[in-house]
Amino acid sequence: MAAGTTFDLAIIGGGPAGTAAAIAAREGGLRVAIWDRQRFPHDKVCGEFLSGESLPMLQRLIPAALERGAPIARCEFISPRGRVDSFRLPQPARGLSRRSLDHALWRAAADVGAWTHEGTPVRRVSRLPPPGDRNPLWQVEPAGGEMVTAHSLLLACGRGWSIPGLNSSSLRMKQRVAAWTGLKAHFAGVATRDAVEMYYFPGGYCGLAPVESGLYNVCCLARPSLLKESAGSGGARDLARWLRRAVRHPALDARLKHAVQTSGTVATAPVSPARRTANLSGALVIGDAAGFIDPFTGDGISMALHSGRLGAEVLSRVRDDRLRLAGAHDPALEYRRRLRAAVNQSYCFAGFLRTLVCAPESLQAVAARFLPRFGPMLMERTRWRAA
Ligand SMILES: Cc1cc2nc3c(=O)[nH]c(=O)nc-3n(C[C@H](O)[C@H](O)[C@H](O)COP(=O)(O)OP(=O)(O)OC[C@H]3O[C@@H](n4cnc5c(N)ncnc54)[C@H](O)[C@@H]3O)c2cc1C
Known about the structure:
Blueprint: E1 6-12, H1 16-27, E2 32-35, E3 49-50, H2 55-61, H3 63-68, E4 70-78, E5 84-95, H4 98-111, E6 115-117, E7 122-128, E8 137-142, E9 148-155, E10 180-188, E11 195-201, E12 204-210, E13 216-222, H5 224-229, H6 239-247, H7 250-255, E14 260-261, E15 266-271, E16 274-275, E17 279-280, E18 283-285, E19 291-292, H8 300-324, H9 331-357, H10 361-381
Helix pairs in contact: 1-4, 1-8, 8-9, 9-10
The structure holds flavin-adenine dinucleotide (FAD).
């Protein structure tokens, strides 16, 4: 596809949502342009747990990368005193670094013919002609690049974005909760187990998950107050040391005793779960940009992939409509309805579980005892429901 083409679809953001959408749209015959402000591969704060619900799609899109991921069959909850409550996951999962996952998805989008631009932030979008027109054109202005026009726009920029030209005031969070800070690093020297381990403590939790090449992902969500307390001690550059000093979880310290950090610590803030919006001035919103579910559910990537695919499928039908000049359906309405049906229950149960995550240690310990029995059911209730 050459510059100057009017694309069927422009996608801002090349994470799991944007790339899944790009691939689905190409499969639907659309001409697609996609931008990401980052270059691939890059590290990203994430627990890197790929839930069973994401695996069939990933198996189809990026089989070789997925194959390298570490198998995960169980979920364990570990109290500061070392009590372990665990259950077998309803479906096998995998651990794969975001470096590998996002890079493989980006390449897959390019391989199916999406016009990809990495290291290129989108600075502004405009709608032409003015709002009210049935089939507007979108003009996308990337930094340092030429303007591109497209019939449809998908916003896949992750949580907490804003792009000039789009009125993001309607993105006010509907479910504001106290924010966490997320920290992540990779470690070698951690004895491999086929479990995702959740070490809970007052003020947050820390997940351990095996990823490719025998490495471990250590990803912690903590209240900013914990970070402030340790600010004078070199911050969290040495993540295991920071966990020892700030979090004080003896069972976690024991698990990381021989661990060697192999990456820098990456951090993100604020991390606050929220429902946002499914469409903005006629653009469809997918992935975290549409809503950010609590990371402890381990289903954010799956939701991003599925919502991306859903958005692209809905828009592929618009093109058919446009060709037939029938104008048969409103894509924004259809997408919003199907997105809600797919995630409403998940947000509801995640909110309930969050109260346990934020509870005092004694209550957390009581709740954890019920997890072997109710864990699989709760997990199932926080998943994307096929629309
Ligand atoms: C601490 C933490 C732990 C998590 N752990 C897990 C887990 O273990 N399992 C799981 O399933 N989910 C987890 N999640 C959630 C998961 O990371 C997200 O749900 C997922 O990344 C959403 O994908 P996305 O494509 O919507 O957004 P993102 O992955 O955030 O991608 C958005 C992309 O848009 C790009 N972008 C933004 N603005 C612009 C712009 N103006 N121009 C161009 N590009 C732009 C960004 O560079 C980025 O690449 C976790 C999240 C956090 C914060």
